[in-house]
Design brief:
This protein is 85% helix and 0% strand. The chain is built from three helices and no strands.
């Protein structure tokens, strides 16, 4: 069960920043955040590949997993702070 849910989560994690960036780039309120989102959208597949390779090799699995999840969590946190600022205006 853990493996199935993890794979589903990783698939969504890979596409979420890119889909979000598509809509952000045309909205003035998200100026500069669209570039950050695009950067994260490029980094997530790279980190996902690194994690899969480390899992196959059995080397640094935990470290690569933490870097992947912290990168995605950082993106969520930054977006949440920006949304808070937008809704307070």
């Amino acid at each position: 069960m853990h493996l199935i849910v993890s794979v589903i989560g990783m698939v969504f994690m890979t596409f979420c920043p890119i889909i979000t960036w598509k809509y952000m780039k045309n909205d003035e309120r998200w100026h500069n955040f669209d570039k950050f989102t695009l950067f994260i959208g490029i980094m997530i597949p790279f980190l996902m590949t690194l994690f899969i390779i480390s899992d196959i090799l059995g080397f640094l699995i935990g470290l690569t997993q933490r870097i992947l999840y912290w990168t995605f969590s950082l993106w969520i946190f930054v977006i949440a702070l920006k949304l808070l600022k937008i809704f307070k205006e």
